[in-house]
Structure formats: C-alpha cells, structure tokens
Design brief:
With 231 residues, the chain is α/β, with parallel strands linked by helices. Helices cover 35% and strands 16% of the residues. It has helices at 25-33, 48-60, 74-81, 104-107, 132-139, 145-153, 160-163, 190-199, 213-216, 218-230; strands spanning 10-14, 37-41, 66-71, 87-93, 127-128, 158-159, 177-182, 203-207. The strands form two sheets. It has a six-stranded parallel beta sheet with strand order 2-1-3-4-7-8, with helices on both faces. Helix 1 (25-33) links the parallel strand 1 and strand 2. Helix 1 crosses helix 10 and helix 2 crosses helix 3 (74-81). It is globular.
Length: 231
C-alpha cells in the first residue's frame, strides 16, 4: 500500500478523432489531486504513425512506469505506442482496440445490427468531420448543450490516414489492459466495445454515459485508470 506521500506513477492521456486533448481536463485534475504525474498528448490526428510518434515523445518525458490511456481512436494509438518500454498498463475508454493489421476503418466496417451510424460527413480534402448539427446526439449526449455545441464547433479535422492506419504490433498482447464501456455510446456501439474488451482480455467496467464519457464522467474514468496503474 502506497503512503499518501509516495509517487503514484505516471499517466499519459491520448484523445481520439474530432477532438483535442482539452477534454481530458476533468480526468487530469482528478488524477493530479490523487498524486499522479499526468501528461496529455496533443496528437495531430493526421496519421496513425504521426500520432504514435507524438505519444512516444510524451512517454519519453515521463518518469516511469506509465499507464497509457486512449479514448476512441486514441485506443488505436495506444495499442501501437504502448509497446514503449516505460508503459506497464493500457486503459481503453470507449475506445477501439485493434489487433495486428486492423484500423478504425476495418473495425467499423461491419456494425452490429441496429447500431446507430455516426454522422461522419464525406471526406473533405483528406479529412473527416462530424455533422455539427448531429454532433451532440451522437458524441456528447450527456453533456450540457452549450458544452456539446462548443465541441461540435471546435472539431479537429481527422485525417483519413489516421482512420485507415493499421496496427503493426498490438501492445495488449504483452501488457495488461483495462476497458471502460460507455453503455449509451452512439459512436462505437456498446456491443462492439464489449467484444473488443473481451478479445484483448481486458478487465472491464461499464458506466452509463455517451461517447464523451471521459468528459462527462471524469471520476469514473479516473477510477478505472487508477485500477490500471495499481495493476
């Protein structure tokens, strides 16, 4: 049992597509208050290769051991970047958890019957956006309308190369994983989340919340990360 003055280890938070790292603020503040060293990756979401490189750069700067956390597409990033020697645990938050050769594109190719279809607009000059009018309902249904509206209007362009980037070496094959299923998610269907969590052998919890559960339920998300950090 750690004393209250003992270091808790490092946590690195990786965001997904259409958003930036600022959505982690509540999780960040909760973990910092509990004594963790926390860093947020501002991955450019232009290509998987670039996002993995950005994540590794942040991991390099942390005192180990590192618990690596990914939301949504960030799960693809941590699946590759998690092979870093400092990373001791992976935490997936309503995230894609691909196997070797898989990408977001392959994982969403066959949605469960009756699953809602994310309102992704046709590619625009190599980038994807969500329909602003449908953003709240699909991505952030449990956030205040003004907050969801801000997220819709401040979307980060998500590169087609990021969505199509395939994992080469899945870190979950050699490192323990945890998974938080968002049961009201309308971007990644909960049945798909459960299937991915089971496939990677993750210790799994389910929490009622939208795809933006990392914003709306920071305490629940932080609790899962603490479990991962504790091993």
């Amino acid at each position: 049992m750690m004393s209250d003055s003992a270091p808790r280890g490092s946590v690195v938070l990786v965001h997904g597509g259409f958003v930036d790292g600022s959505g982690w603020q509540g999780v960040y503040e909760t973990l910092k208050a509990d004594g963790y060293t926390v860093a947020v990756v501002q991955n450019p979401t232009l290509s998987l290769e670039g996002d993995v490189a950005a994540t590794r750069q942040v991991i390099d700067a942390q005192p180990g051991p590192v618990t690596l956390v990914g939301h949504s597409y960030g799960g693809v990033v941590i699946t590759e970047a998690g092979n870093h020697r400092k990373v001791t645990a992976l935490a997936y938050i309503a995230a894609f958890a691909p196997d070797k050769g898989e990408s977001v594109n392959t994982l969403i190719a066959n949605p469960p019957p009756g699953a809602p279809v994310p309102p992704i607009l046709p590619p625009n000059e190599g980038f994807l956006f969500l329909d602003r009018d449908k953003f709240a309902g699909s991505f952030a249904g449990d956030l205040p309308p003004a907050q969801a509206g801000f997220m819709a209007d401040s979307q980060a362009p998500w590169g087609l190369e990021a969505a199509g980037g395939a994992v080469a070496t899945p870190a979950w094959r050699t490192k323990p994983a945890w998974y938080l299923v968002a049961t009201d998610d309308r971007m990644i269907p909960p049945p798909a989340q459960r299937a991915m969590a089971e496939r990677i052998g993750a210790q799994t919890v389910e929490v009622a919340g939208s795809h933006a559960i990392y914003v709306s339920q920071p305490a629940a998300v932080a609790n899962l990360i603490k479990q991962a950090a504790a091993g």
